[in-house]
Amino acid sequence: MTQLVTLNARILEGLYCEALVLAEEVRAAFSLSGRIEQAGQDEDLARVALSCVGLRTTTRMMHAIAWLLNHRAYLKGELSEFQLRRYGALARDERGTDEASFDLLDEDVRELVDATEQFYARLMRLDHAWRQRQPSVPPGALQRLRQRFGSPASR
């Protein structure tokens, strides 16, 4: 049985603040200055790993923030439910982290990547549950349908 999800402004603001904090931590963690301690060929591999994982992690957080901004706009009346359902879906995060690259990173960076993946998984569950509920029909559309086809009581 699917639980109906109502995303209210308070929940979204909390998630949005959490996303901003995570995004700032990601930005700081993936700046290359001082992050690579190996020398030689391992250093090159570590730099490539840091770049690849950094790009995936940054993209994940950008998608999360965009999703949250769309839901905030919906709650403020700036987007219709139709627009949010059509254009506001959270992108699937299907590309897992390459374990070989992941193992080259510092422990604190790996923990941060895990935190962003867990945060994104929470948003995916919310998005999925929200999409399972029936969309509301705008009053104007219902009124136009009744005018066009008549109400069931008049038949």
The total count of strands amounts to 0
Number of helix segments?
6
Average per-residue pLDDT, rounded, comes to 83
Oligomer: single chain
CATH topology: Helicase, Ruva Protein, domain 3
The percent range for helix content is 55-70%
Distance N terminus to C terminus? 35 Å
The major pleated sheet works out as: none
> Which range does the strand content fall in?
under 5%
Task: Please identify the top-level CATH class.
Answer: Mainly Alpha
Shape: elongated
Taken in chain order, the helices and strands follow as HHHHHH
What is the annotated CATH architecture?
Answer: Orthogonal Bundle
Question: How would you classify the helix and strand content by structural class?
Answer: mainly alpha
Count of discrete structural domains? 1
Query: Nearest-angstrom radius of gyration?
Result: 22 Å
Summarize the structure.
The protein is an all-alpha fold.
Keywords:
155 residues, Helicase, Ruva Protein, domain 3, 68% helix
Notes on the structure:
This protein is mainly α. The protein has helices spanning 9-29, 41-75, 81-87, 99-103, 107-132, 139-149. It has one domain (9-149): Protein of unknown function DUF1465 (Helicase, Ruva Protein, domain 3), CATH 1.10.8.930. 68% of the residues lie in helices and 0% in strands. Helix 1 (9-29) runs antiparallel to helix 2 (41-75), helix 1 (9-29) packs antiparallel against helix 5 (107-132) and helix 2 runs parallel beside helix 5 (107-132). The mean pLDDT is 83.
